[in-house]
Amino acid sequence: MGQPLVSSCCRCYSLRSGSIATGVLGILLSIISIILIFTVRIDFKTILMDWLPQNVVKIIYALNLVMTILISLLMIMGVMKKNHFFMMPWVVLGLMLAIGLLISVIYNAVVYFIDGYVLGGTLWIVVGLLSVVIYVYLWIVVYSYFVTLKNENDRGRYSKQPYRR
């Protein structure tokens, strides 16, 4: 599969610790987001289906966040049990979410700029791109631990001598 992209998290923590922290952070942010979705009066919009009623959009967002919580729990369990298969859904989904986050940041910034809100557009670009960079780095940490576990499992599986009488 190759080599891990990084060898530690933030140059002072292990990939294992960074992966667990990433999973916990994903769960906490998802829970906070679910609470905010249903308690704060914000107009949520979708890029493609802007005709959907607000309640439906909120439920779609909440279901996505619940799935994020479940996949993050599965990833943490994979880290704890040293099972890279449990981490795979998070690794795959994480990459797709990073791409989606980047598209969302650019789209929202452009909409703000078109509507004449230069400060809002600038904030979306700065804060949004910073969020994308942090998210991608955390994905790289988890992916690197995933690769490390996969390599260990592959070596262990093939390095053992078959039992002979």
Describe this structure as you would to a colleague.
The chain has about 160 residues and is mostly helical. It has one domain (about 15-155). About 75% of the residues lie in helices and about 0% in strands. The protein has 4 helices and no strands. Helix 1 (about 15-40) packs antiparallel against helix 2 (about 55-80), helix 2 packs antiparallel against helix 3 (about 85-115) and helix 3 (about 85-115) runs antiparallel to helix 4 (about 120-160). The longest helix is centred in the C-terminal third of the chain and has 42 residues, at about 120-160. It is elongated and about 75 Å long. The model has no long low-confidence stretch (mean pLDDT about 90).
Structural topology:
Layout: H1 15-39, H2 54-81, H3 84-114, H4 118-159
Helix pairs in contact: 1-2, 1-4, 2-3, 3-4
Transmembrane segments: 20-39, 59-78, 90-110, 122-147
Pfam family, one: DUF4728
Protein name: MARVEL domain-containing protein
